[in-house]
Design goal:
Helix 2 crosses helix 9, helix 5 packs across helix 16 and helix 9 packs antiparallel against helix 12. The radius of gyration is 34 Å and the shape is elongated. It has a 5-stranded mixed beta sheet with strand order 5-4-3-6-7, with helices on both faces. Strands 1-2 form a two-stranded antiparallel sheet. Helix content is 49%, strand content 9%. The chain has a domain of 102 residues. The protein is of the alpha/beta class. The longest helix is centred in the N-terminal third of the chain and has 47 residues.
């Protein structure tokens, strides 16, 4: 198409030139408009292709970058079961062919793992029918013992504890003396601490609804009605609340926290439906000294006010995703040292992972490789102290981050706005200051995975109990989950800790409540150390 300047040189009448110029201008304007429409359509197609690929992967494949540990365990269990069944079927077929199996060599068996030493041993001795030789009649002499061990379990054995308190009378004083009734966590209740512990562990660790616990007891002809179980759980929630409050106090002594939230369905009796509530989770920083703590906070919404109310006057670094509800915590002007945002590299990586899964984007692949370098550097520093890790990050992580930022900035200028590629890059560039803070220290975490890993089992358990019956029930579950989750984080057996705590609580002085928390008292150090 000729330009307007070229048309000026054509020997035409003035009116014709003007008309022709107007036509050219109109054509150029339409062509520019068509180009913009094509670009918008391409962006829309890219976005829809990405969304379709993502939804297909959510529907038919893995929902995250890789199997979660729980999903992987379930997959591995099924695979192992199928392999064992196949081998057994093949062995059964082989055994049915005597001509083949008569000379079949004995299959070597791999050595199995020894059974735990702390388990009690019950011995079964298998002696020969006679101590004389069956051939010559001579006495047999013991030369050695062949010992094999098998693992056994006794499921939910119910017993009855009978407390007998003899009463004695003094004729001279005309008084009656008897031993005092032992203090109990539930006065006058028929349940021992062992049974109460069993109920709470089933409900909050194994995620069994009360009606299933009722059925387990009924199989042994023990009647534990749901109303009775609910009464015990409600009372124990109140009893354990002071420990939860103290646990939250210890958590807020640290200067670095992880935070995340997950939706929970809550029954709404007025409408006969369920409504959405949220379980907020706050976790201590593993890279600092002190006990590992997780505190759950159940609230009826996802508003950022819930986070601010829990944190109160707390100041420090908060590791979160890009949810807007946390933003207000980073913009409180009246505080001298406001909360400082830490960006989660796992979330940033996820954007590029989804993009690469959708269209095999070379840009997304390179971004994943560069972010992978950061995680490889963190793996090298896993066992270092804070000072060594800080130097390690300065020497290795900082140069990688600088190159990554330069590459993202340069590449972003070549990508049109509005597409999924632009959005993935903008997510990281927009929050770049929060993403690089960890590399300037030796104690800040690189991502929010520690708190997500603690939430994940509860998210899986939701498929069992489906919804919280009320807001109070949700808060009670959050409180008990906080204690049991903290016990697991500190390497304690939640069942053993809970049983011991419930036995001690009735007579335990409040001034020594820290000694009952689910972590060693000596581990309560100054978590502000960096």
């Amino acid at each position: 198409m000729k330009s307007l300047s070229q048309f000026e040189q054509i020997d035409l009448e003035s009116a014709s030139k003007t008309q022709m110029a107007d036509m050219v201008r109109a054509l150029l304007k339409q062509a520019n408009k068509d180009a913009q429409d094509i670009q918008r359509k391409e962006d829309k197609i890219q976005a829809l292709t990405y969304e379709l690929s993502y939804l297909r992967r959510i529907r038919y494949g893995a929902k995250t970058e890789a199997f979660s540990q729980l999903q992987k365990d379930l997959f591995d269990e099924s695979l192992d079961e199928d392999l064992a069944a196949t081998k057994a079927a093949l062995e059964a077929l082989s055994d049915s062919e005597p001509a083949i199996t008569a000379h079949k060599p004995k299959r070597p068996r791999a050595g199995r793992q020894s059974l735990p030493e702390h388990l009690p041993r019950i011995e079964f001795r298998h002696e020969p029918e006679s101590c004389q030789c069956g051939r010559c009649g001579s006495d047999l002499i013991k030369i050695r013992e062949d010992v094999t061990e098998q693992l056994d379990v006794v499921p939910a054995v119910f017993t009855v504890h009978r407390h007998i308190r003899p009463q004695y009378a003094c004729k001279a004083c005309e008084t009656i003396i008897a031993a005092p009734i032992p203090a109990a966590v539930i006065d006058g209740g028929m349940a021992t601490v062992g049974l109460l512990t069993w109920v709470l562990i089933n409900k909050y660790v194994d995620h069994l609804p009360l009606y299933r616990i009722e059925q387990i007891a009924a199989r042994q002809k023990v009647i534990l009605s749901r109303s009775t179980l609910a009464d015990w759980v409600g009372k124990l929630g109140v009893t354990l609340q002071p420990l939860v409050d103290r646990l939250a106090w210890h958590l807020l002594q640290g200067n670095t926290l992880h935070a995340d939230e997950t939706p929970v369905s809550q029954l709404d009796p007025g409408r006969g439906k369920t409504k959405k509530a949220y379980l907020w989770a706050y976790r201590s920083n593993d890279l600092q000294t002190g006990p590992r703590i997780i505190v759950f906070d159940y609230r009826d919404g996802r508003s950022g006010i819930h986070c601010r109310r829990f944190l109160g006057d707390w100041k420090g670094q908060l590791m979160v995703d890009d949810y807007s509800g946390y933003k207000a915590s980073f913009n409180i002007k009246q505080t001298v040292v406001p909360c400082i945002e830490l960006g989660c590299w796992a979330h940033a990586r996820r954007k590029f992972f989804d993009l690469h899964k959708a269209n095999q984007s070379p840009m997304a692949k390179e971004a994943l490789e560069r972010i992978g370098q950061l995680y490889a550097i963190e793996a090298e520093a896993m066992d270092m102290d804070c000072a060594a890790r800080k130097q390690h990050r300065k020497d290795k992580s900082s140069p990688v981050l600088t190159e990554l930022h330069q590459w993202l900035t340069t590449t972003r200028t070549k990508i049109a706005n509005g597409g999924t590629s632009a959005k993935a890059m903008d997510y990281t560039l927009r929050r770049w200051a929060s993403f690089i803070r960890y590399a300037e220290t030796g104690h800040l975490p690189i991502d929010n995975n520690p708190v997500e890993n603690v939430i994940r089992p509860i998210a899986l358990g939701k498929k069992n109990w489906l919804f919280a019956g009320s807001e109070r029930a949700g808060q009670r579950a959050a409180a008990i989950q906080s204690l049991l989750g903290t016990a697991k984080l500190n390497g304690l057996n939640p069942e053993a800790w809970l049983k011991d705590t419930l036995e001690k609580l009735p007579v335990w002085p409040n001034s020594r409540i820290d000694e009952l928390l689910p972590f060693p008292v000596t581990s309560v150090d100054d978590k502000s150390q960096v």
